[in-house]
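Practice problem 4.
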């Protein structure tokens, strides 16, 4: 198939397209499983290291706002219905937070007021376009360096140096400290208290990804709090379990109707490690390496949705999309947890990726395959810059093949 050409719409027409007219519907839920209507059609909007937005730090407030709204309009253009906006990338904030400093990715200087409220604007402008706005938080990452003196003087990690652990060239809060867990919840939920966000969203970073030859030094926290556990791994998983359970309860208490979802690395455990795992040979296993028991969270209904990052092509030997999709569908079967699928749009057309990603139809095939599984309730694309640029028209192919009409988000 040749290049796919998008229709051009005015901003007013884009809003009309989402807010009114013919809307896709979804099949009835299987008996015994609560189903919301609608279909997730989302994109992540990453702010860490200015990945998607702002295009660079230090832009005037008006230009930042213009760029942000352009991403929302792109989502509407492609008949998406949800934007997952990263509002706490590195123990900082994209709103006027009393807990943490303004993000350096706005002005280039941590703690400097950008002169406007990005999260408040994003919520209002997304809702005006018929989009949901999911506030995306990274719980424990503090900095992309290990020098606390480079943080703003009143940063919590400087006021509480025992909270921070250097590892792999970055600085992290220690998840094993109850006071850290309470603080990061307070910091994140301040945004929920202030704004009518549609969901709270965590990504795949809990304990950090393993770095060869390095050890995450949480000895002091383990000595103080780990005595009731058979080993350090079980204690670390309990720390993350507590974060998830407590956050879920506090979100519901603070703003009923706001959902809580997690987007983990796509492999919970390989079957060679655990017979309940997937038939994969991934080098990272979320349960063992990030200490995140994502399967349990979904099976026990701790979260409202799970969006595993299935960032591999169909036929990829170590982690085949066609293998992981039915595995995750089975995980959520019989639960109240919605399943959405994280899609690696960023790989499409990247010459460093396998040949499958040079084919504009690869992502469209993912959506076609997912239609076979009623548990799969939609897709989220990484990330906004790639949606806008669409190097080989892979997103345009998805729109043409699957998103011919608008769809309501799941509720």
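Answer key:
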């Amino acid at each position: 198939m040749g290049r796919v050409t998008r229709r051009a719409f005015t901003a007013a027409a884009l809003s009309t397209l989402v807010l009114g007219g013919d809307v896709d519907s979804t099949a009835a839920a299987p008996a015994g499983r609560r189903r919301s209507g609608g279909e997730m059609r989302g994109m992540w909007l990453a702010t860490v290291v200015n990945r998607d937005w702002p295009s660079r730090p230090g832009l005037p407030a008006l230009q930042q706002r213009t760029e942000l709204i352009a991403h929302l309009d792109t989502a509407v253009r492609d008949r998406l219905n949800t934007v997952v906006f990263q509002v706490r990338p590195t123990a900082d904030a994209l709103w006027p937070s009393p807990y943490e400093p303004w993000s350096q990715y706005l002005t280039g200087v941590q703690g400097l007021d950008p002169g406007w409220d990005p999260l408040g604007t994003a919520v209002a402008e997304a809702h005006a376009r018929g989009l949901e706005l999911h506030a995306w938080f990274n719980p424990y990452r503090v900095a992309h360096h290990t020098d606390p003196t480079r943080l703003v003087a009143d940063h919590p990690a400087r006021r509480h140096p025992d909270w921070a652990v250097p590892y792999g060239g970055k600085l992290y809060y220690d998840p094993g400290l109850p006071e850290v867990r309470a603080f990061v919840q307070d910091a994140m939920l301040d945004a929920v208290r202030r704004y009518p966000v549609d969901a709270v969203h965590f990504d795949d970073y809990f304990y950090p990804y393993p770095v060869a030859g390095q050890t995450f030094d949480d000895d002091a926290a383990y000595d103080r709090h780990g005595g009731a556990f058979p080993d350090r791994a079980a204690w670390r998983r309990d720390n993350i379990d507590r974060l998830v359970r407590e956050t879920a309860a506090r979100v519901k208490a603070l703003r009923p109707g706001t959902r809580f979802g997690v987007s983990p690395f796509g492999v919970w455990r390989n079957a060679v490690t655990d017979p309940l795992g997937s038939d994969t040979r991934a080098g990272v296993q979320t349960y063992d390496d990030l200490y995140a028991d994502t399967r349990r969270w979904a099976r026990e209904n701790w979260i409202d949705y799970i969006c595993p990052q299935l960032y591999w092509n169909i036929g990829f030997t170590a982690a085949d999309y066609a293998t992981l999709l039915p595995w995750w569908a089975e995980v959520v079967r019989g639960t109240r947890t919605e399943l959405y699928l994280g899609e690696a749009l960023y790989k499409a057309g990247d010459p460093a990726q396998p040949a499958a990603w040079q084919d504009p139809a690869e992502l469209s095939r993912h959506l076609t395959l997912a239609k076979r599984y009623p548990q799969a309730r939609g897709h989220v694309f990484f990330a906004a810059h790639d949606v806008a640029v669409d190097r080989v028209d892979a997103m345009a192919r998805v729109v043409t093949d699957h998103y011919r009409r608008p769809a309501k988000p799941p509720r």
